């Protein structure tokens, strides 16, 4: 039927083309101004009872008939497609998957960098909104509910009564599984009353394996006071209060140190404002993961001051560390104790080391033995790691050169067989030093001969595309070729459409030059306070 209507309409259009010819065809689309008689002739051509107007009405009627026919055809098509899709669903792989396989898939969907969030758009709550079968599986899988993050703040957009109901149901669904729980309270004004929530966590204390308490310490005092009988399996602890000096609570309430003296504790992360770690009777030698990140308001004469000397002392106490992150403050930026010769410090198991704060290394301490180090981060990094999978054979260094002299930087490049290198440069970083980096990574110096990935953020103002292309050519001529080279910069576009460079790209080189964006947008995040950058990179 639709074809017949189209054929009829085409015939009508063809017929119209010869029914009447306008004497004004040559004037159409111009600035011609018709005379009085011509205006009358034009009005007769377009008036409502003219042949053109009648033909237009006829065409509108035909179009309406076609749209009705097309709508009916679409309805039949949608019904048929829906029927086909419904039959396909009967034999879909997910419908045929055994329940045990679905459980493994659900567990793999849980967030890896945080505890599970009270967010219906994310696992595990998401699985309750798909179908009844998936909901039943999710509710009968205790491991799905073995972690939870609870933001005790108005900014998170949840009422205390709702959080209490969710937590009570969540903990029941977890059965007898070991638990990972994180509580977050940002400040006094916008926080919810945490007492009932804390009480519910106390009821399941014997099952806690990981606990994160972020907020004013005094509101968590009942949890901090628990001993080994109440927390027999707690192995990871994060304590964070960036708004007030923390030492006072341990002086006023010595029982608050019970939780950090647990014999089961192998990992601890502390973010504080001037914590005096000498007052804490930590079992340093049993720690395998350590993060000390603090806003240091203490002066060198005060006990809470944490400089390079104290960092070395902490490292000396922790021979079994595998992951470590320390924040160091040095008033004299030209001297950092970390660079000084000291007694030999051996960390035979350390795989990850992060050093941030306010300091400048003049050299790399050769007395620091790190035979298994595979991740080194020095300085404040304004970007998240951009690498994909890092194998056990790779060694990654993320460095802000503003925290080192050129000599210290070259020491590091010489000391470790790096395969991945990321440089985030500050504006005050000397341009000549960055040029030296490019030179020493190429023949004849050939520093970092195993380097396959190089990423540079915010290079110097003297950065040029031509120099970058020369660097690529030099590295591609070495025994081990560059696999990835990224530069994120402010400036003019870099032309990579060069025959030899494109041949490298065709062979697998990932080459990217991107202008940095200054857009710092802010949006709602249901994971507010769930984790910080240090804990994320250390897999705390």
TrEMBL record:
Keywords: Coiled coil. Residues 56-90 form a coiled coil. It comes from the Eukaryota. This is F-box domain-containing protein. It comes from Favolaschia claudopus.
């Amino acid at each position: 039927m639709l074809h017949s209507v189209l054929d009829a309409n085409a015939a009508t259009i063809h017929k119209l083309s010869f029914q009447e010819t306008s004497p004004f065809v040559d004037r159409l689309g111009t600035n011609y101004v018709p005379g009085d008689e011509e205006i009358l002739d034009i009005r007769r051509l377009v008036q409502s009872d003219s042949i053109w107007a009648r033909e237009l009405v006829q065409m509108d009627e035909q179009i309406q008939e076609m749209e009705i026919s097309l709508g009916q055809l679409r309805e039949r098509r949608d019904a048929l497609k829906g029927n086909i899709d419904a039959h396909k669903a009967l034999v879909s792989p997910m419908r045929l998957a055994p329940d045990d396989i679905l459980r493994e898939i659900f567990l793999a969907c849980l967030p890896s960098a945080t505890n599970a969030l009270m967010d219906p758009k994310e696992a595990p709550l998401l699985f309750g909104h798909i179908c009844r079968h998936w909901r039943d599986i999710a509710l009968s899988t205790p491991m799905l509910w073995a972690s939870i993050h609870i933001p005790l703040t108005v900014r998170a957009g949840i009422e205390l009564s709702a959080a209490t109901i969710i937590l009570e149901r969540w903990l029941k669904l977890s059965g007898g599984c070991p638990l990972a729980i994180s509580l977050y309270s940002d400040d006094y004004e916008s926080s919810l009353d945490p007492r009932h929530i804390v009480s519910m966590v106390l009821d399941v204390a014997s099952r806690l394996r990981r606990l994160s308490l972020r907020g004013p310490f005094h509101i968590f005092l009942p949890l901090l006071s628990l001993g080994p009988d109440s927390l027999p399996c707690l192995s990871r602890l994060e304590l964070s209060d960036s708004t007030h000096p923390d030492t006072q609570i341990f002086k006023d309430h010595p029982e608050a140190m019970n939780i950090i003296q647990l014999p089961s504790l192998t990992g601890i992360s502390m973010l504080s404002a001037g914590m005096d770690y000498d007052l804490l009777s930590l079992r340093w030698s049993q720690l395998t993961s350590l993060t000390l990140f603090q806003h240091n308001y203490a002066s060198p004469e005060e006990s809470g001051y944490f400089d390079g000397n104290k960092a070395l002392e902490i490292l000396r106490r922790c021979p079994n560390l595998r992951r470590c992150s320390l924040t160091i403050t040095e008033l004299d930026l030209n001297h950092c104790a970390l660079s000084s010769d000291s007694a030999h410090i051996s960390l035979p198991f350390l795989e990850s080391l992060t050093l941030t704060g306010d300091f400048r290394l003049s050299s790399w301490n050769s007395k620091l033995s790190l035979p298994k180090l595979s991740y080194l981060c020095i300085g404040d990094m304004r970007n998240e790691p951009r690498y994909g999978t890092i194998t056990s054979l790779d060694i990654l260094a993320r460095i802000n050169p503003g925290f080192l002299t050129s000599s210290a930087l070259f020491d590091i490049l010489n000391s470790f067989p790096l395969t991945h290198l990321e440089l985030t440069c500050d504006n005050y970083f000397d341009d000549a030093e960055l040029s030296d980096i490019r030179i020493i990574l190429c023949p004849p110096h050939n520093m970092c001969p195993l380097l396959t990935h190089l990423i540079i953020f915010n290079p110097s103002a003297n950065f040029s595309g031509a120099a970058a292309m020369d660097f690529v050519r030099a590295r591609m001529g070495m025994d081990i070729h560059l696999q990835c080279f990224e530069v994120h910069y402010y400036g003019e576009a870099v032309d990579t459409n060069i025959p030899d460079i494109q041949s490298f790209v065709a062979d697998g080189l990932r080459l990217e030059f991107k202008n940095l964006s200054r857009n710092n947008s802010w949006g709602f995040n249901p994971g507010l306070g769930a984790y910080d950058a240090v804990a994320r990179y250390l897999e705390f």
